[in-house]
Amino acid sequence: MALLIAFINIVAWGLIPLTVRKSPTSQIAGMGIGSFVTALAIYLFTFPQFELTTWVAAFIAGAFWTIGQMGQFISFKQIGVSGTIPLSAGFQLVGNSLIGVLIFGEWPTESAKVIGFIALVLVIVGIVLSSKSDNADGHANVNNVLFLLATTIGFWIYSSSPKLITKEINPGVSGLDYLLPEMLGVLVGTVIYVLVTHSANVYRERATYHNILAGIEFSIGTLFYLFSVKHNGVTNAFIYSQMCSILSTFGGIIFLHEQKSHREMVYVTIGLLLIVGGSIMTGFAK
């Protein structure tokens, strides 16, 4: 059962890049609606506890998620899904690991630090290989990679919030307790982005409502990730969740027909293996 829960999380998150359509703005707008509606439905069936500080922290985290996801969607256009996902997964793993070490005191022993930082080196090498292109003017150029890295800060804040909430704010909180405020933050963050970019007409586009499906996938994936944390533990749940990058990357190549030369396929495959291997290796840094 524990592995089935993790599998649902992997599939739900992995399908998001393959589900979204049209412009990044319509993608983020649809996801905002879909994720909040799904979380609201879950809330009405479960009625978890309400605690104001937890809600505020979760809301802020959800709003920052918008920055990370918007960066991904724009990068899908600039780099492609199969180019963006390995880079994004690697950036998230490196950032989340460093936040864990520097802020939450993870990897407390010398051996843990050695294992952890070797794992991060593997991930960084994987990132470099994943961004390799046969074309000197390839889409994964320095500016596009730096843009993706900068927006990944939103994912770092979002991913760190459960630890912050359970460790510093409300140790007794469950994942269901902050799912709704988190997705409310996602919705508000997406609306703010749409308004700031003067793109309100996106809510009249048919593609936006198609992209609600991606929001449903995101909420369901998040819910099962929280269940996976409970059944598999924090470390294993995170490691399992990284498998979604494999589904998204090769899904982009197969189903979205993103062109890769033989050498680029080798780079991407080895890069992904290093990123996933690095994520597994961090599980031994205790």
Question: Can you walk me through this structure?
Answer:
The chain is mainly α. The chain contains twelve helices and no strands. The protein starts with a helix and ends with a helix. The mean pLDDT is 88.
Gist of the model:
The protein contains twelve helices and no strands. The protein is mostly helical and 286 residues long.
Topology:
Elements: H1 2-19, H2 24-46, H3 52-78, H4 81-102, H5 110-130, H6 142-169, H7 175-196, H8 206-210, H9 212-232, H10 234-241, H11 244-254, H12 262-282
Helix pairs in contact: 1-9, 1-11, 2-3, 2-7, 2-9, 3-4, 3-6, 3-7, 4-5, 4-6, 4-11, 4-12, 5-12, 7-9, 9-10, 10-12
Number of domains: 1
Count of individual helical segments:
12
| Percent range of helical residues | over 70%
Major sheet: size, sense and barrel closure?
none
Radius of gyration: 18 Å
Parts with pLDDT < 50 across at least 5 consecutive residues: none
Strand content of the residues, in percent? Answer: under 5%
Count of β-strands: 0
Shape: globular
**How far do the termini sit from each other?**
26 Å
Mean pLDDT: 88
Global structural class:
mainly alpha
SSE ordering: HHHHHHHHHHHH
